[in-house]
TrEMBL record:
Native source organism of the sequence: Nipponia nippon
Membrane-spanning intervals of the chain: none
Record Gene3D superfamilies: Homeodomain-like
Ranges of residues in domain HTH myb-type: 124-161
Official protein name in the record: Transcription termination factor 1
Residue runs in coiled coils: none
Length: 349
């Protein structure tokens, strides 16, 4: 298939495909197009964003079955073959013979590359190793000075995952302030967000709509894009003294205060009512996974607030009220809150 045809056919499933590199498009045409068409026949749309519990389970099942078929003795050898140079040739031959790409992506309506990255994250024994020690942070700085952004090499030297070392270096590369935000920092954050949003709107204005459509479109941009998919690492660089996650949390706080005109929505009787509404709405949705929840719509249960605010309140509820919540599925957590916590909150109200 030639490149233009591949782009045209993939565009039906991935609207932003023309922003993807030509080499990636060629790989997707080979690995994904047939799968996407099969999913379309079944009425299943291609998905992006966070993986659901169901998809994670399917990845585990696919990996375990492939190990069983090939006799490769660990998921680490399968997904991090370069760590085992003595077995590399044999493992790669088995992967080719038993169609590793097709097997790994079985039953998951997503681009293969994203499934592969997710599997690597799930099965990397160097992941989830807890907080970095002072010694590790110093090592990370030293290795970065030697090897730059070669996260693969640095991750092997530190026995941490690629993502973990990259994110941690982003956090420690400059003098980060962990205290209360100063007025100057808050102003820098607001200017940084305004700058990236203005740039985004100017790019969209290049494909200008009619004046009446543009007027309506701008209203939607104000509401939706104030807190969704902002380039936080770029904003972090503009603020200079805060880690990107701190910037995101602070921006949510600023937006919540402005959208609610400074009212304390989550205190006193209003707070109790907000928790009750949130639990009831989540229970009514019957969602199996947090990814299936329309958090934007759910924010009305508390008030006119950003979705991140509602997600943070749900997180606090499950951590403080649900025993062993880490071992429960999303639906089990919601059921527990509805059956055990809700009556207590209603009585208190």
């Amino acid at each position: 298939m030639d490149l233009d045809t591949a782009k045209q056919e993939l565009e039906e499933f991935i609207p932003h495909v023309r922003n993807i590199s030509d080499s990636s498009i060629r790989k997707m045409a080979g690995r994904d197009l047939v799968r996407f068409k099969q999913f379309k026949k079944q009425g299943i749309a291609v998905k992006f964003g966070r993986f659901s519990q169901k998809e994670n389970n399917q990845i585990r099942k696919n990996v375990e079955e492939f190990l069983s078929i090939t006799g490769i003795d660990s998921a680490e050898k399968l997904l991090f073959t370069s760590r085992y140079p003595e077995d590399k040739e044999t493992i790669n031959r088995l992967k080719a013979e038993h169609l590793f790409c097709e097997k790994l992506s079985e039953g998951i309506p997503r681009p293969w590359r994203l499934i592969y990255y997710r599997a690597r994250k799930m099965f990397d024994p160097n992941n989830y190793k807890g907080r970095y020690t002072k010694e590790e942070k110093e090592k990370l700085k030293k290795y970065h000075a030697l090897h730059g952004n070669d996260w693969k090499k640095i991750s092997e030297m530190m026995s941490r995952s690629n993502l973990s070392v990259a994110m941690k270096y982003s956090e420690i590369k400059s003098a980060i302030n962990y205290g209360p935000w100063s007025k100057e920092e808050t102003q820098k954050l607001m200017h940084a967000v305004e700058e990236v949003m203005r740039k985004r709107m100017e790019m969209e204005d290049a494909n200008s709509l009619s004046s009446s459509e543009k007027s309506h479109r701008d209203l939607l941009i104000d509401r939706e894009k104030l807190y969704q998919k902002l380039p936080w690492t770029e904003i972090e660089a503009k603020v200079g003294t805060r880690y990107w996650r701190q910037c995101k949390q602070k921006w949510t706080t600023i937006l919540t205060s402005k959208m609610t005109k400074g009212q304390q929505l989550y205190r006193g009787t209003k707070g109790l009512q907000a928790k009750i509404n949130l639990i009831k709405r989540l229970y009514e949705m019957k969602a199996e996974d947090a990814n299936e929840v329309n958090w934007e719509e759910l924010s009305n249960a508390i008030g006119d607030v950003p979705r991140a605010y509602v997600q943070a309140k749900f997180y606090k509820l499950k951590v403080t009220c649900v025993p062993f919540w880490q071992k429960k599925t999303f639906s089990e957590i919601v059921d527990y809150l509805f059956e055990e916590k809700l009556p207590e909150l209603e009585e208190k109200l």
